[in-house]
Amino acid sequence: VSTMHSTYCGGVSARTVLASLAARPRTRPRGPSMAEPRSLQVRYRRYRPSVPVARAKARVLAEEWRLPSHVADFLEWVVTELVTNAVIHGRATRGSRVVVAYYLDDERLRVEVRDLASGTPCVAAEPSSNGDAAEGGRGLQIVAALADDWGVTPRVIGKSVWAEIAITSGGGAA
Fold first, then answer.
1. Within 10 A of 169 (CB to CB), how many other CB atoms are there?
2. 112-143 residue pLDDT tens
């Protein structure tokens, strides 16, 4: 996790999030039915100040769509990590954009972060056993821990990194 956002998202460290999710069940019951799916796309400039803006928009959207609080928390972390990766690691032209797309149906919330950079992101290796904690490199580990599924879709120009979070019966969008 970069220092830019390591204490955001409720002031909890990435290590704490990963540890608390280790035993989380990977299947969840289906949530209540919605009248129709929802979607939204938001464009951001590809630069660091876009990360907290995207994170705040994810939180507002979760409230507007009345998502359960744990889904809102997961969404906030996932958007933060994926947008940070697109901004920091994307090798696209200056002034390019990052697009964050949200799709909600009866069963899941899908978020996609698209950039124009080539390359395929991958989960970094586990931290060293001697206790050294690198400042970065755990973003996709966090995404993998929080999301029920995630992946990369290559595009003609660039890629989309996506994550899906199941909506539980304990709330769901209305």
1. 11
2. 999 888 777 767 666 555 555 555 567 888 99
Q: What span, in angstroms and rounded, lies between the C-alpha atoms of 36 and 13? A: 36
Q: What is the pLDDT of residues 80-116, one digit of tens each?
A: 999 999 988 776 666 688 999 999 998 999 999 998 8
SS (H, E, C) the chain: CCCCCCCHHHHCCHHHHHHHHCCCCCCCCCCCCCCCCEEEEEEEECCCCHHHHHHHHHHHHHHHCCCCHHHHHHHHHHHHHHHHHHHHHCCCCCCCEEEEEEEECCCEEEEEEEECCCCCCCCCCCCCCCCCCCCCCCHHHHHHHHCCEEEEEECCCCEEEEEEEECCCCCCCC
How many Å apart are CA 171 and CA 33, to the nearest integer? Answer: 11
